[in-house]
Structures are given as structure tokens and as C-alpha cells.
Recover the amino acids of this structure.
């Protein structure tokens, strides 16, 4: 009997040791890295955190810090990523000169260490910014570069097709724009690109006097943009609906949608750090 | 009578073994307590020293008493005396008591800028006798940030009141300054008129000296009379005004000195404060970072997505 008590005691002791080990293993923080590497990672993490909180100015400062720290460590992939992010934030803050300069620097670097997916991302983003400025030919060149390097294999593929559709729309080639937007819709994409494709298709259809279908597409885009919580896009969708309704002779409804669009734009512009864009096709 | 028969050889003499084991444990614990007590100074001979203050605010039992940064004792008792003043008893280690003189002073300070309160003892004058057990020494409240702010406020308010009063005087249409300025303006206008008349008179002097000189001279006489009255008024009013201005300037000078002194006093502390705050934030961030990557918090805290910031074709 006593020996069984001793065995029980040993088992309990073993269990306690195992539990202690398990608990300490679960609770331990990851091993520390060299200071400069930790600082760079922390700057990047804090930049994303600031972006999530909507503090674009702080995000810009932190992405710049992360970029410089990574450059100082000759970490080309990480510094390129930080530069692309800095460019995106600069674009949101309407500092497109800086945004384009950063992207051009990336695209000018032909070293083997530059990851191709980042070069594609840089070219794609350059195309988006140039399209915003109406520099359609240059945007087309940037998009071609991105598409060539991507070869339909990269994550931004649907976005590129949408950008091509947008450029076609801006060039007045409505059938081409509609075809490309429909291709994105049929292929499937994430909500943001799906909403963009619906909006482009709706605009093209409206231009081609297919107003009923355009109205439906605008409503689909509106629902998606509301899910995404994108004020500027919601305003665009509402304006598009108002335009189509007016074409269909439903003026009272059109006025209501136009007023809603104005209210959304006005409210969004009053928000701090707002960068509500004008209506884009 | 034995409850269990010790048939197993291994349990022979178990009671003695257990007794020795328990005894060793008790001795170990006792020694541990003894050493801890010695280290904590429980057995160090101490003497009581007292101080009296208007209020016991911020003074607590157990508060350390330090001399030149070394702990020499603690506050052991705090009670109200029959005059409703706070009487505090400090237990000072005897070996340090010899370092304190009769005119030693304890002052309430903060350890760091945002640290706990401590009592800092000053030695006192070298020519005085050594402090004896049971003596009462002086107490003062030290200048933490709050104290500096209060002092600054107390000294700034009267000066600001004076400035306010002066500005009111200046803005008051019936006040000395406005009235004097009005009188001066009137005086200036009259003098201008007089000068014009004299100019005119000089221009006409060849043609009608006899007819014109007399009234012009009368006018000059009148103006001079006015000027004399004005000067008289100014003589009466100016000293008062100058005194006020002087008083205000003196107050402003004092204010400036007070502010300068406050800045001089608080600047080193503020530097320390900023440094400590920065350190505190850094430490907190480290703790939070470590905690957020550890179980179970890592499953609860949402880490922001890293990598490329999302940008779609319509951004």
C-alpha cells in the first residue's frame, strides 16, 4: 500500500513538472533579435497599426523609418516593401509626386535581389496613380509592364484587368471596358475588385444605353462598397445610380440618390485625414 | 501500540528519519527568517525621532527616511496631537543617528518626479550637537512639481491681478490714462491752432501789425494759459500714473524672475520626468509586446496585417 502511495506521489510530481514546463513554454516570448532588425520590424508593425487606426501621417512617418532602417541593413525585399507601402500612403495623402518617385526608383532597380512580385506591385500601383491623373498613355505602359511580369500568375491579376478596363473606359472604348469588367466578374475576385468591376461595367453599360442593367450593377457595387465601408466609392455608386435614373426619366428618385451622394461626400470630407476623390469612371 | 507493523526493511526507523527531516526544515525556515530579519533591519537598534507638521498629508507609516540617498529609518507612527497637528515618529538606526545634528531637518520629497514620497533628512550644522533619541526636529515639504506649480500660481496670481488692473485702467474711458491722453490730445490740438495763428500773424505782420498783433497775442496768452493748466494737471496726475506703472513694472519684473526661477527649478526635474516617462513607455511597450506574443494573450490580440498595404485598381 505504501509503495503504491509512493508511485502515486511520483506520478503527481512528474505531472507537476510537465505542467510547469508546458506553462513556461506557452508563456515565453520569442527570442530577441539584433536591435536594428527589431527596430525595423517594430516600425513596420507600428506603421500598419497606425494605418489600421486611420492615422495616415504617422503611418507615413513610420513606413519611411522602416524603409530607411531596412535600407541601412541592405534588406532589399523589406526596404522595397516599405517603399511601396510608403508610396501607397503618400498617394492616399495626395502626395503623388513622392508616390511616383518611390515607385520609379523601385522599377529602375534591375538587381536580381529585387523580388519580381514587388516589381509587379510597383508597376501596377504606378499605373493606378497615373490613371487617377489622367496620364492614360503612361498608365498603360506601367500596366503593360506589370501584366508582362505577372503573366496572369500574380495576386494583382484581377486588379490589373480592372485597371485595363478603367483605362479603356477613360479612353472612351466602352465595349472593351465592359468586356474586361465582365471577365473579372465572371472569374471572381475579392470584394473590392468585384465592386470596381461592377462599377466599371455599369458605367460602360450606361454609356452604351443599357441603363437597366447598369442600374442593377450600380446597386450591386453599392452593396459591396457598403460592406467594405468605402465612403468615396459609395458616393460614386450613388452618383452613378442618380445619373442612370435620370437617363431613365426617374428624376425624383435620381434627385434623392444625388442628395445621398452629396451627403456622403460632405460627411466624408469633414472626417480628419479624409481624401475623398472626385467621381471616377 | 503500533497501527502498522514495519515489516518492510526500508521503513525501519522511519519516525526518526522524518523527525530529522522536519527538524532540518524548521531550522532552515528559522534561519531564513532570521537572515531576512537581519537584512531588513528588524534587529538593528533604533531610536525614535519626532517631527510635527500642520497636516499629515502624503506622510505614511512605513515611509522611508533617507540621508544622502541611504535609508536610515522609517516612519513608525503618525498621530494627531492635542493641537490637531500631525506628529510623526521616525525610527532611525542608531549608527546613523550620530550623523544627524540638532538642527537637522526632514523634508518630504518624491523619489524621482513621479515616484513614491520619501523623507529626506539633512545633517544640520556641523557646530551643533549630535541629535539625541527622542528629540523633535523640523519638518518641511519639498518642492515636487505640484509644489512648484502651487508656488508659481501663488506668486503669479497677484502679479496677473495687477496687470489686469492696469489694463482695466488703460481701457477705462474715465481712467487716468485715457483722460490724460485725451487732455494731451486736446492740448496738442490747441497748440497746433496756436502755432497756425502765429504763422498767420507772422505772414500778416507787415500789413496789419497793429490790428492783428493784439488779438493774436491774446490768443497766444490764452493758449499758454491752457498749457499751464494742462501742465498743472499733468503734474498732479503723472506721479500717480508713474507710480502705478512703476508698481506694475516691478510686479512684471518679479513675475519674470519667478517664472525664470520656476523654470530653472523645474527644468532639471522636467528633463528627468520626460526621461522617466520615455523609459516607462518603452518598458510598457516591451511588456505589452512580450505579453501579446505569449499565450493566452496572443490568441486574443489582433495583430495588424503586415506586408504590402492593400491598394486596388480604383484607389
Amino acid at each position: 500500500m505504501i509503495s503504491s502511495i509512493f508511485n502515486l506521489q511520483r506520478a503527481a510530481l512528474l505531472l507537476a513538472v510537465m505542467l510547469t514546463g508546458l506553462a513556461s513554454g506557452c508563456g515565453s516570448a520569442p527570442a530577441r533579435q539584433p536591435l536594428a532588425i527589431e527596430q525595423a520590424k517594430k516600425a513596420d508593425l507600428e506603421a500598419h497599426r497606425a494605418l489600421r487606426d486611420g492615422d495616415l501621417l504617422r503611418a507615413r512617418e513610420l513606413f519611411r523609418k522602416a524603409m530607411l532602417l531596412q535600407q541601412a541593413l541592405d534588406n532589399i525585399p523589406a526596404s522595397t516593401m516599405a517603399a511601396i507601402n510608403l508610396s501607397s500612403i503618400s498617394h492616399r495623402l495626395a502626395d503623388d509626386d513622392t508616390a511616383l518617385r518611390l515607385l520609379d526608383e523601385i522599377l529602375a532597380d534591375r538587381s536580381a535581389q529585387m523580388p519580381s512580385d514587388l516589381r509587379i506591385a510597383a508597376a501596377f500601383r504606378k499605373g493606378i496613380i497615373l490613371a487617377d491623373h489622367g496620364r492614360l498613355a503612361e498608365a498603360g505602359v506601367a500596366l503593360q509592364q506589370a501584366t508582362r511580369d505577372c503573366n496572369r500568375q500574380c495576386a494583382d491579376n484581377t486588379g490589373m484587368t480592372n485597371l485595363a478596363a478603367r483605362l479603356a473606359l477613360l479612353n472612351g472604348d466602352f465595349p472593351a471596358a465592359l468586356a474586361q469588367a465582365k471577365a473579372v466578374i465572371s472569374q471572381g475576385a475579392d470584394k473590392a475588385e468585384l465592386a470596381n468591376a461592377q462599377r466599371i461595367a455599369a458605367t460602360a453599360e450606361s454609356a452604351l444605353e443599357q441603363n437597366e442593367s447598369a442600374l442593377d450593377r450600380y446597386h450591386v457595387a453599392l452593396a459591396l462598397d457598403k460592406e467594405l465601408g468605402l465612403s468615396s466609392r459609395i458616393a460614386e455608386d450613388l452618383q452613378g445610380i442618380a445619373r442612370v435614373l435620370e437617363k431613365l426619366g426617374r428624376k425624383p428618385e435620381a434627385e434623392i440618390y444625388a442628395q445621398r451622394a452629396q451627403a456622403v461626400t460632405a460627411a466624408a470630407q469633414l472626417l480628419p485625414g479624409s481624401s475623398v476623390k472626385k467621381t471616377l469612371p | 501500540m503500533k497501527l502498522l507493523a514495519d515489516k518492510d526493511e526500508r521503513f525501519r526507523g522511519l519516525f526518526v528519519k522524518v523527525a530529522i527531516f522536519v527538524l532540518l526544515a524548521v531550522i532552515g525556515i528559522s534561519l531564513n527568517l532570521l537572515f531576512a530579519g537581519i537584512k531588513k533591519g528588524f534587529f538593528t537598534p533604533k531610536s525614535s525621532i519626532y517631527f510635527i507638521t500642520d497636516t499629515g498629508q502624503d506622510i505614511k507609516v512605513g515611509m522611508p527616511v533617507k540621508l544622502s540617498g541611504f535609508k536610515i529609518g522609517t516612519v513608525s507612527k503618525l498621530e494627531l496631537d492635542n493641537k490637531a497637528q500631525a506628529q510623526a515618529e521616525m525610527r532611525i538606526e542608531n549608527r546613523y543617528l550620530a550623523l544627524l545634528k540638532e538642527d537637522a531637518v526632514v523634508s518630504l520629497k518624491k523619489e524621482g518626479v513621479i515616484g513614491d514620497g520619501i523623507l529626506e533628512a539633512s545633517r544640520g550644522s556641523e557646530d551643533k550637537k549630535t541629535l539625541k533619541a527622542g528629540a523633535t526636529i523640523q519638518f518641511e515639504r519639498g518642492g515636487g512639481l505640484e509644489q512648484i506649480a502651487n508656488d508659481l500660481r501663488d506668486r503669479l496670481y497677484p502679479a496677473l491681478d495687477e496687470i489686469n488692473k492696469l489694463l482695466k485702467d488703460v481701457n477705462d474711458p474715465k481712467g487716468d490714462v485715457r483722460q490724460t491722453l485725451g487732455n494731451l490730445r486736446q492740448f496738442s490740438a490747441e497748440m497746433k491752432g496756436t502755432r497756425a495763428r502765429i504763422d498767420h500773424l507772422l505772414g500778416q505782420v507787415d500789413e496789419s501789425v497793429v490790428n492783428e498783433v493784439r488779438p493774436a497775442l491774446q490768443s497766444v496768452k490764452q493758449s499758454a494759459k491752457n498749457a499751464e493748466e494742462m501742465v498743472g494737471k499733468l503734474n498732479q496726475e503723472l506721479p500717480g500714473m508713474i507710480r502705478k506703472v512703476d508698481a506694475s513694472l516691478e510686479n512684471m519684473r518679479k513675475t519674470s524672475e519667478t517664472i525664470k526661477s520656476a523654470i530653472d527649478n523645474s527644468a532639471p526635474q522636467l528633463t528627468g520626468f520626460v526621461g522617466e516617462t520615455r523609459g516607462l513607455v518603452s518598458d510598457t511597450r516591451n511588456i505589452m509586446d512580450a505579453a501579446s506574443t505569449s499565450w493566452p494573450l496572443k490568441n486574443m490580440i489582433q495583430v495588424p496585417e503586415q506586408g504590402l498595404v492593400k491598394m486596388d485598381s480604383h484607389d
Remarks:
- Chain A has 13 helices and no strands.
